[in-house]
Amino acid sequence: MSAPVAPLPSPASLEAAPEAAATRRTAPPPDWPSDRLEGPEAKRLLLDALAGLVERLERHDGYSAVIRRQERVGGRLLAEQTLRMKVRHRPASIYVRNIGVQDGFEVIFVEGLRDGKLIHHSGGLAGRLLPVLELSPRSPLAMSQSRFPITEAGLLSAARMLRDDCRRDLGEPGASIVLDRLVDPEGHTRYRSRLRYDAPAPGRPFSRVEVLYDPGTFLLREMTFSDWPEAPGPGEPLLGGRFVVVEFDPSAVPSDRDFDATNPAYDFR
Questions:
Q1: Which among 136, 110, 87, 129 has a CA at the least distance from the CA of 269?
Q2: pTM of this prediction?
Q3: pLDDT at site 31
Q4: What domains, with CATH codes, occur in the chain?
Q5: Other residues' Cβ atoms within 10 Å of the Cβ of residue 193
């Protein structure tokens, strides 16, 4: 039986991060519309904003974060997971632990080590019985909990993906963008972008993508994507997945020890 999980800190930690002011100084937040904006102007504004976000994130060496994740994998919507992440950008390194359950799984990937493989140990009883595994990041077992390989995890990878998709869609009439603002359930104002495609095409795994951004830093706070309907027609698409940034600390830059399986704080054996 899983142990109860302590309440997570408020998402306000993102606004209060020590490097938030420095992040703002490197480039100002985008001049987001106060009212609904769509069409070519919205596409260009979003592309400029995402390009600036990628540039700012690339200046950081890394960060720690807590992410809530729920995805549809193999046609089945999995239970939501709460993940502790430590991310280093150079060399690309990531540590992930499921902290939403007792004895959750752990994964480590470091670019250039283990012939490009990650190491993984299962959670719970399986983690006590099964050995630590080395897996290709795109192997079926490694991707049994997510549609994105660990090599594409993290805020920088997500920002690059959104930027590249936006650049590709600039001249695409079948790709529509709407920019606006909303107030989330906690009372915070968020910038919002909503992408919608008219029809499936190569490079369009999702029919809709909605992203919420922090107004002060333009950091991603939540991303929701929808799959294509199983049959043509006006039916609503299925939820493909959702990621929510609960904590983000750019001052907590991981070291080599954070990606070492012998770290006594970890449960690799």
A1: 129
A2: 0.86
A3: 87
A4: 33-252 (2.50.20.10)
A5: 24
